[in-house]
Amino acid sequence: MSAVTVDQLVVRFGDVEAVRGISFEVHSGEVFGLLGPNGAGKTTTLRVLTTLLRPTAGSAAVAGHDVRKEAIAVREAIGYVPQAISIDGALTALENLEFYARVTGVPRRVRAERIEQSVDAMHLAPFLDRLGRTLSGGMLRRLEVATALLNRPRVLFLDEPTVGLDPTARQLVWERLAILREQAGTTLVVTTHLMEEAERQCGRIAIMDLGELVAEGTPSELRTLFQAPTLEDVFTAATGHRLEEGGGFRDARTRRGLSRRLG
Amino acid sequence: MRAHAEGFRGGWANPALRVGDGVGAMAWAEFRKLRHDHLDIITRSVQPLLWLFVFGTALRRNRALAGGFHDYRAYLAPGVMAQAALFIAIFFGLAVIWERDVGQLQRLLATAIPRLAIVLGKATGAAVRALTQAAVLLIVLAIASISIRWNVLDILGSLVLLLLATGGFACLSMTLAALVRTRERFMGIGQMVMMPLFFASSALYPLSIMPRWLQIVARGNPLTYEVHGMRQLMLGVSTGGTLWVDFVFVAGFLVVTALVAARMYPRAIL
After folding, report:
1. How many angstroms away from the CA of A220 is the closest CA of chain B?
2. B109 contacts on A by Cβ (under 8 Å)
3. Is A203 exposed, middle or buried (0-12, 13-18, 19+ CB in 10 A)?
């Protein structure tokens, strides 16, 4: 069964076509990577799938629900960790968990239990009483994932989950995500611009560039198809240009602000 | 698929319950934040106290300004309470922009919580802050033995009015935030909206001493009704309003701004 279906999806902002008729499918229980440079349309695609943005044309379904017609059902079935920090710095880690348990409609009688499970899954126990703004980048990311797990999502969307993290924190985040997928069967949809990370962590990959989907398959399939030694070379072969940092002022500001705050 | 089979819709079959739960959660979070930051309440109380004790004392014997009431400071007290709450509410929009710039807004909008609940929850948050502030001011009024009527029901009534109006102004502010989207522009707009609201109202002086055109403007200003109602309850004299009209106008203001804000709020992320 497919967790996500995207069919001929188009998103236009005024004259700019951010997503130009892409189609792909994510299978239940896999780790799916949406790859590409900043400005490729990954985040826009993710926003459509999380019902934050209405598509201009085409269709998308998550957990069997149409993002346009059944937005509420989609929101109930997903967890979303945006690229920027979604933790409230003025609340403690535990209060953040409690807050998201409430706003995602976790019934009162199971709240404590769900929070405990999330805390265990993401190894958060030692700093539950610390204020959000005092946590390190890796702790924050794990806390964010934990808050996104409380409603037992079928599909978890992560936008650049390891941006600004040091290698150890990065490794720990991936390790916890892998265990989550194995134990709860949660489907993971991840965007990243880090090719070697995608290669190691994702079961299947779709490469986006300038709003179009240029290649799709398992990392080894893609390497064979494009006769390239690494995904980075696959990208160059598929798009005809090298992977470069893109994005506008706001992107850059968010990214740098993020790494600054994440220390 | 264990992950979904246990489902979580149980508690949320009813949409009204959803809104209620959402509002509760947002207000709870705001309350917890306040508990972590006591200083905020203190620093925010400075400005209203300056109005009350410097401005109010300087003009203490001015009967015209007090609409004939014997003590201008008592007359001013409800106005200053309402103004302090207005300041809190108007800058709640700034929090929306801040939450957009970090990822909180996106996150919240991707949960099944209704937009109306988000907006009303934030409004309740503003009201919670306004209430703690009002409590501080009431204590100061008592200590300074400023002669308001200390009737429990009347005080509670005036606080209800304060809460409704603060919620309404917070919704107005969130709508503005969704439209202007950057902090810099919002600061300008915030001032532009707040100062006229304050001066073209009955907060500092009665409508009767205003020129005709300003009276007309003030008649459309929710702050006027808020202050009129609070004043009537706290001082026991009508200063140019009817209590039930004040409540209806302020409640209507909250309903309209909340509905508009719930529609506009998701646009803040674009």
Report:
1. 28
2. 52
3. middle
Kindly list the domain boundaries of chain B, sorted by start residue. 19-269
Residue A184 phi/psi, 5-degree rounding, is: -105, -10
Whole-model pTM over 0.95: no
- Take residue A200 and report the two structure tokens written for it: 């190691």
The nearest alpha carbon in chain A to B9 belongs to A105
| pLDDT tens-digit readout, A51-100 | 999 999 999 999 999 999 999 999 999 999 998 888 999 999 999 999 99
How big is chain B, counted in residues?
270
Which residues 6+ apart lie within 8 Å of A129 measured at CB? A92, A93, A94
What is the topology classification, in CATH, of domain A2-262? Rossmann fold (3.40.50)
How does DSSP assign B100-118, residue by residue?
A: HHSSHHHHHHTSSS-HHHH
Taking an 8 Å cut-off on Cβ atoms, the answer to whether A254 and B24 are in contact is no
The alpha carbon of residue B123 is apart from the nearest alpha carbon of chain A, in Å, by 16
> Is the CB of B18 less than 8 angstroms away from the CB of A28?
no
Phi, psi at A15, each rounded to 5°? -90, -15
